[in-house]
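Continuing the batch. This is chain 6 of the set; chains 1 through 5 are on the previous pages. Same settings as before, nothing changed between runs. Recording input and output for traceability.
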Amino acid sequence: LPLTIEDGENVIKVYYVKDNFSYTVNYYMDSKNNAPFKTEGENAQFGTKIPYDVAKNVPEGYKTDAAVENANGTVTEDPAQNIVNIIYTKDNFGYTIRYHYDDIHDESEDVTGSAEFGSTINGYPDKIKEGYELDKTEGFPMTIKTSGNVADVYYVKKEIGYTVEYYYDNVLDNSKTETGKALYGSKISTYTDKPVEGYKLQGTSSLPLIISENAEDNIIKVYYCA
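Output for chain 6:
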């Protein structure tokens, strides 16, 4: 153009190329009810697939296989239609609860599981053993992270009461009874000798005494006879 008419073929050729239009990619955590934590957008050629990368902006603790709205959308003349929404959901991660008895870790009692990122574990299965009591816990409440999810439960042996009774001709003298405390499972092999004039030691029962959980069973009897 301009075209001057001459003999022969008088042709005007007009060429069109596809225009570029804007597009938007929104990144959400958990739900579209939340505001996008990131928004990206540029221009792309009309009719081409809207470009996005699901793995590009994965938040910590979230799955890489996100849900994508308008996954196969192409660029139109209307930017309001050129939108891709990527919605990430939380992943699950493993955790361990370790059990200790007198500061010795018993791996056979450990509890393992998995829970959603960011969730909280407040409790634990009680694995108390006979003669033990809870000493302390560490790591509770446990908020699930991508790694290092460990909490500890500590049990220690109980201090349990025991009694030494003194009998004279098989008659209990309550005034001479002694009491004490010892750790569960420990051994009591001695007692205070309490003879009286005219009596001699006849024998003992439950000696040595292995401290059991029930204080009523932890009795040493000392017998004297004339």
